[in-house]
Amino acid sequence: MSVTFVIGGARSGKSTFAESKAKEYSENVLYLATAVVTDQAMADRVKKHKSQRPGSWKTLEMYSDFDELANKEEFISSDAILLDCITTLVGNFMYDSGLDFDSCSAEEVNQLEKKITDEVMILIDVCNRFGKKLIIVSNETGMGVVPSYYMGNYFRDISGRINSRIGSAADFMYFIFSGIPIKLKHRGEMVKWPQDF
Fold first, then answer.
1. Alpha-carbon dihedral 181, 184, 188, 189, rounded to 10 degrees
2. CATH of the domain at 80
3. 193 within domain boundaries
4. Residues 189/141, Cβ–Cβ less than 8 Å
5. Residues 8 and 177 sit within 8 Å (Cβ to Cβ)
6. Which site among 91, 139, 162, 172 is 20 to 30 Å from 152 CA-CA?
7. 186 catalytically annotated
8. Is residue 190 part of a domain?
């Protein structure tokens, strides 16, 4: 089992790189799609993602209840698991919470963040227990403009802290910059630049 974490900005080529890694690991891949189709733009994005994946890959549309994977044939019969992506997962949890982020308490936000973090760690744990190679894709949310509204700030902060947890747990980590992968972590060790780059 290993965890590979692929992170980068929007439209940086994260998904394409993660899919190429999954193909290296196995032909037998389960794709965990966290996106919920809410409008035509999202439907188009989902369609494009599906078209670039091999037809033999299995797909489950889910962003929670990862403990249930242990009972799903699609999971049991796969060698590699690819989740795309964490920031969509975070957004879904925030929407599902029903919180008014302009007026809710900090404690309510903290509880929500713990719930999301626990769910991601369950995914890592279940893949570890079943000996699966796990690839996780996420957006780097901390390098852009500071959002001017509460929900945006909470989204950025929660995503950033969860990304840090995944980065710590990862065996391999890549930052994708304009389609170019930069290796940050190899077999659990930080890459020493420039000699190991």
1. 140
2. 3.40.50.300
3. no
4. no
5. yes
6. 172
7. no
8. no
pLDDT in tens, 157-167: 999 999 999 99
Structural domain that includes position 128: 2-184
How buried is 158 (Cβ within 10 angstroms: 0-12 exposed, 13-18 middle, 19+ buried)? Answer: buried
Residue at 195 is within a domain: no
Q: Both tokens of residue 128?
A: 């570890």
Cα–Cα distance measured from residue 84 to residue 137, given in angstroms and rounded to the nearest whole number: 5
Separation CA 101–CA 116 (nearest Å): 16
User: What is the distance between the alpha carbons of residues 115 and 110, in angstroms, rounded to a whole number?
Assistant: 9
Q: How far apart are CA 172 and CA 189, in angstroms?
A: 8
The total domain count for the chain is: 1
Q: Is the peptide bond before 127 cis (omega within 30 degrees of 0)?
A: no
Judge whether 75 lies within some domain. yes
Rounded-to-integer distance, Cα 32 and Cα 137, Å: 11
Phi and psi, residue 71, nearest 5°? -105, 5
Cis amide linkage into residue 194, ω under 30° from 0: yes
> DSSP 3-state assignment of 112?
helix
Is pTM beyond 0.90? Reply is yes
Among candidate residues 45, 49, 72, 186, the one labeled active-site is 49
